[in-house]
Amino acid sequence: MQNFPLMINGEPVETPQHSEVINPATGLPFASCSQADVHVAQQAIGAAAQAFDSWSKLSHSQRQEYCHQIGAVIEANMPELMQLICQETGKPMGGLNGVGAGMEVGGSAFWAHFTADLELPVEVLQDDDSGRVELHRKPLGVVASITPWNWPLLIATWHVIPALLAGNTVVIKPSPYTPITTLRMVELANSVLPPGVLNAITGDGEVGNLLTSHPQIAKVIFTGSTPTGRKIMASASASLKRLTLELGGNDAGIVLPGTNLDSALPAIFGCCFHNNGQTCAALKRLYVHRSQYQAACDGMAAKARTIKVGNGLEEGTELGPVQNAAQLAIVESLVAAAKEEGGKVLCGGERLPGDGYFYAPTVVAGLSNGSRLVDEEPFGPVLPIVAYDSLEEVIELANDNDAGLGGSVWADDLDDAHALAGKLACGTVWINDHGAVQPNMPFGGVKQSGLGVEFGLEGLKEMTSCQSICIKP
Ligand code: NAD
């Protein structure tokens, strides 16, 4: 079984302890990675701290060139990275609506190139007889990046490229469920970067906690669950680290009365079930006006029954397995609770045969807010559909959640949808779409879905601190 080393100071690092990485389509290990402990993590932080001085002194255009080169090595190694993603996450190479390993690798390269072109020039805030005020953006130092298992390469790219571009150096720690693609990407990136600029280690809470409390870490960018986000905030508070937290979502989608379901439902289906629902900003609760409720439930269930679930390496697979056994257990417990709470499982509602963590795409009707499946993020292939009677009621239902990542309004009349959009308490609202992110659009949650934003100039700013220079004439 191939072992993937850590990457510290430009060198692959083997450690005595290896962790096996499971392919969720088979339930069996397919590779292993070297295991970091806190001692090894210290070495990675030290390497990044040492590299900071020369990296931060490069010109912006030199760092842009390096970031483009990272995009280029991702592109050049697309087949290998796709295969690794497919094996460690279970997601198909192609996938439902083209959302799969190919999109993840292609999207990472695209994102790297787009972000590499961004710049935060010095702003002149005032220049008159009373003086000149300039706003400069400075790098922060060593950034710790901590990532989840659902989009391992894409989220790593989202963290690493803006951090490096702004002049920081990085230590990245991927999820123990999906470390391989990140280790390989960092190895590839190190073929073009100076040593120590980008380091990768592995581990879980203990190593993560070292990163979030270490005095030499200036900033933590974290994508993952809300409970872990709370721990990170507490741990980072002692040294007042800068934080970007992209946390859990429980996004509502609202179908306005009279919407043409023939066109809306297939699109909504993709927004709920792509990547098996394991996307932070997937549509996770669907609200449909009572006049169209039955038709929407029937349509979504009919579509769910046609979906090809299987090993992501097989041609034509639309959805792979749930990524890990613990997540599968959460999905099963939420569906069991839904049944107890009077929900009607219209399709799916059970594991599929085989050794992998396969679960049938599931649609549940008859629930409302207050039931666990509606209130909690399932992060799996399960969608509750809830009936509503008035627009006032549905806004209240949609906003009645601690999460506030995204939301959507589906309607034939765009003005009607737009009028409702601003009433949703979330970071992004899509109209006739849900979950589509792009590198020029700030993305982040409100309420307990996070702190700060990623992407575009706003995201890049979060990798810097402001320095105002005031000149008296
Ligand atoms: P998780 O919180 O369990 O783990 C995420 C990462 O945190 C892993 O690398 C893990 O090893 C690390 N970690 C665990 N304990 C830690 C600690 N004490 N200190 C520091 N690091 C620690 O999340 P997950 O199960 O991997 O991911 C699923 C969750 O991520 C879902 O809730 C999903 O909504 C969320 N997510 C959010 C976004 C977003 O942009 N808002 C994107 C993707 C996923």
Automatic annotation (TrEMBL):
Residues 17-469 form the Aldehyde dehydrogenase domain. CDD domains: ALDH_AldA-AAD23400. Keywords: Oxidoreductase. The keyword Cell division does not apply. It comes from Halioxenophilus aromaticivorans. This is Aldehyde dehydrogenase family protein. It holds the Pfam family Aldedh. InterPro entries: Ald_DH/histidinol_DH (IPR016161), Ald_DH_C (IPR016163), Ald_DH_CS_CYS (IPR016160), Ald_DH_CS_GLU (IPR029510), Ald_DH_N (IPR016162), Aldehyde_DH_dom (IPR015590), LUC3-like (IPR044086). GO terms for molecular function: oxidoreductase activity, acting on the aldehyde or oxo group of donors, NAD or NADP as acceptor. The lineage of its organism: Bacteria, Pseudomonadati, Pseudomonadota, Gammaproteobacteria, Alteromonadales. Belongs to the aldehyde dehydrogenase family. The active site is at residue 246. Signal peptide: none annotated.
